[in-house]
Amino acid sequence: MKIIGLTGGIGSGKTTVAHLIREAGIPVVDADLIAREIVEPGQPALAELAEHFGEDIIGEDGSLKRSELAARAFKSKEKTAALNRITHPRIEEVTRQRFAELERSGEPLVVWDMPLLIENGHHNEVDAVIVVDVSATERVNRLVKFRGLSRKDAERRIAAQIGDDKRRKAATFIIDNNGEQAALAPQVAQVVAELRSRWLQ
Ligand code: ATP
């Protein structure tokens, strides 16, 4: 089974592209979703986080108060490292399980929607990389308009990620999402066709 990484900066349109890829019949493993699953009520990572960062990061309904955890975990490098130490191995384990399940069921291709694909060096491990590319200015506009972020917060988040040049350099395929959303479907169709012609006979 070939694993194709899908990445792009915050607000670039990864989720929108992932949706089109699923519609084209290729399964998508969503890294953000897995990161949420492993801290659901009852999961060991949630208990460990509470032990480390304080029981009051858990709400009355037993679910993680994400903003509370973020406020504590991003205070220092050490605290962020502790968060990563608790969550990353579990995220990796579940991701591996998902890939294994898909491979067992005979899927020839899987797309891995992974925002930090390049930051974490995974672009060297996958079989191809799809980058959703949008100028930083446009991403700020969309994050403000559709996500309700302040302009400053959007700019800060973008600045914390790797630059667009580095991302583009790691790309096997670039999907240009600077234009209308309707322009995505034909580009995704073309990438999917290329993936299939490369690996499916
Ligand atoms: P995140 O990194 O925050 O998870 P993402 O990369 O998954 O974001 P999306 O959620 O797909 O990005 O897109 C961000 C927002 O921009 C969404 O509200 C989406 O509907 C909108 N959007 C995506 N593409 C376009 C486009 N070409 N024109 C206008 N809006 C768009």
UniProtKB/TrEMBL annotation:
Pathway: Cofactor biosynthesis; coenzyme A biosynthesis; CoA from (R)-pantothenate: step 5/5. It comes from the Bacteria. Pfam families: CoaE. It is an enzyme of class 2 (transferase). ATP binds at G11, S12, G13, K14, T15, T16. Its EC number is 2.7.1.24. Keywords: ATP-binding, Coenzyme A biosynthesis, Cytoplasm, Kinase, Nucleotide-binding, Transferase. GO terms for molecular function: ATP binding; dephospho-CoA kinase activity. It catalyses: 3'-dephospho-CoA + ATP = ADP + CoA + H(+). GO terms for cellular component: cytoplasm. The keyword Endoplasmic reticulum does not apply. PANTHER family: BIFUNCTIONAL COENZYME A SYNTHASE-RELATED (PTHR10695:SF46), DEPHOSPHO-COA KINASE-RELATED (PTHR10695). HAMAP family: Dephospho_CoA_kinase (MF_00376). Belongs to the CoaE family. This is Dephospho-CoA kinase.
